[in-house]
Design goal:
The chain is mainly α. Among the domains are: 44 residues, no CATH class; 72 residues, Arc Repressor Mutant, subunit A (Orthogonal Bundle), CATH 1.10.10; 47 residues. It contains nine helices and seven strands, in the order H-E-E-H-H-H-E-H-H-E-E-H-E-E-H-H. A three-stranded antiparallel beta sheet has the order 3-5-4. The chain has a two-stranded antiparallel ribbon with strand order 1-2. A two-stranded parallel ribbon has the order 6-7. Helix 4 packs across helix 5. The radius of gyration is 58 Å and the shape is elongated. This is Zinc finger protein RTS2. One of its GO terms (cellular component) is nucleus.
Length: 298
């Protein structure tokens, strides 16, 4: 039965029936014809046009399959790079978006029977990074363009420079720590040496004589007869007793006046009034503040 002419009701009805995706196994890539059911595909395979096309393809079957495979891979990778970039995505999601175009190259005409084999092929060739999880196969496109390679190289150089700066800072910090440790060790050694010298200087020899200090008056020898004792005279102007001149008579009236005046002052001075409780508290508070200030200043 001949095909319906374009624009006829039969043609429009066939187009409406073939709208959307249909079974992959009922599609003929050689003739680019989609059949709606198994019976339709069987009738198409037995048609004269299909047999003639198959004879042409059979002469160079490998070349045709390679062409279909290359076209399928290029379109799939183009969609992956344009739609998802270098992000990690499920392979089945990319495939569903790829086959949404009705006139795409179908997988049954390529050398890959399943999507898993095609994804493994992309991983082996380095086109994409592939990994398998419990949710299925995931792929991520590897951008090998000169612009992307230059950008990656620039980022690597920047990272190396940053790492070298960090290493340089770490080395400087380590040197400063070692220098500080060395200075601290030298100071400790010097302190120990000074302590040893002081201990040596303050150490008393066993055969040395005992030293005694005398605070007796001038001209009077100490009762100690220890050999090697040191005799020290006390300055009479600072704390010693001054002897009175025996030729000079004492002034009796001056002593009496002084004693009488001092007695009058003592009699005339009234006794201090008793302190109240409030005054005592104020004095205690002032005394406490004064002690606190002395401790802080010390």
């Amino acid at each position: 039965m001949p095909r319906a002419e374009v624009g006829t009701p039969k043609y429009l009805a066939n187009k409406m029936k073939s709208k959307g995706l249909q079974r992959l196994r009922w599609y003929c890539q050689v003739c680019e014809k989609q059949c709606r059911d198994e019976n339709g595909f069987k009738c198409h395979a037995a048609s004269e046009s299909h047999l003639r096309q198959m004879l042409v393809v059979g002469e160079h079957a490998g070349r045709h399959i390679s062409n279909f495979s290359g076209e399928f891979q290029s379109e799939f990778v183009a969609l992956l790079s344009r739609r998802f970039g270098t992000k990690r995505v499920r392979a089945n999601q990319v495939y569903q978006e790829y086959i949404s175009d009705k006139h795409h190259v179908h997988m049954n005409s390529t050398r890959w029977v399943t999507l898993t084999e095609f994804v493994k092929h992309l991983g082996r060739t380095g086109v994409a990074r592939v990994d398998e999880t419990g949710k299925g196969w995931f792929i991520a496109w590897v951008d090998n363009s000169p612009k992307a390679l230059a950008k990656a190289e620039a980022s690597m150089k920047k990272e190396r420079a940053t790492v070298s700066d960090e290493q340089r800072e770490r080395m400087l910090i380590a040197e400063q720590i070692e220098r500080a440790r060395g200075e601290a060790g030298e100071e400790e050694d010097k302190g120990e040496d000074r302590g040893e010298e002081e201990r040596v200087l303050l150490k008393r020899d066993e055969g040395a004589e005992k030293l005694t200090i005398s605070f007796s008056k001038p001209g009077v020898e100490s009762s100690s007869s220890t050999p090697g004792a040191i005799k020290m005279n006390v300055n009479p102007l600072k704390g010693g007793a001054v002897k009175a001149n025996p030729l000079k008579r004492p002034n009796v009236f001056k002593g009496a006046s002084v004693s009488s005046s001092s007695g009058a002052q003592k009699r005339s001075a009234p006794p201090p009034p008793p302190m109240t409780a409030a005054e005592r508290l104020i004095l205690e508070e002032q005394d406490r503040k004064r002690r606190k200030m002395e401790r802080e200043n010390a």
